[in-house]
Amino acid sequence: MRARVLRPAILALALAATASLSATSETSLSGFVSGRELCEQEVCGSAIFLAAFAGSIDDRPAVGLALGGIVHEPLPTQVGQCVGILDGSWSIKTLRRTLAGDVKSGLLCYVDGVQYLVRDMVMEITQGGSGHAVFDAVLDHRPFPPTIKGAIAQP
User: Fold this and answer.
1) Is 97 within 8 Å of 128 (Cβ atoms)?
2) Residue 91's beta-bridge partner residues?
3) How many CB atoms lie within 10 A of CB 20?
4) N or C: which terminal CB in the chain sees fewer CB atoms within 10 Å?
């Protein structure tokens, strides 16, 4: 009789411990984005981007759409000059899941008048998971509308 009572209690404790461990683990996010700048910061108040995402979320293959709005200091004008990425938000929507969050920091660096590098942009995951990832990309103003291609990885 005692074993019948203890087994469910032990099982409940084990499940509770497992649930609390999985709730505190960070979300794994990596992949590539390729898309377009829909609106520049001077017009919309933030640079707005829409891109395709292909990669993995929590070690499962994922494809979907990425959307971001980034606020940066005035664009640099000299080769090698970088300015700060000050703020922003982002989301990645797949068939299984949506991740979203805030942009905490990063750099926007001038390459040659039409290309800029997005370097070390920190993406905090606040919805659909937890943790953060880093985004690096090339923003090319040569075609219209400008293109962005880059990679998301975890530090």
Assistant:
1) yes
2) 67, 100
3) 9
4) N
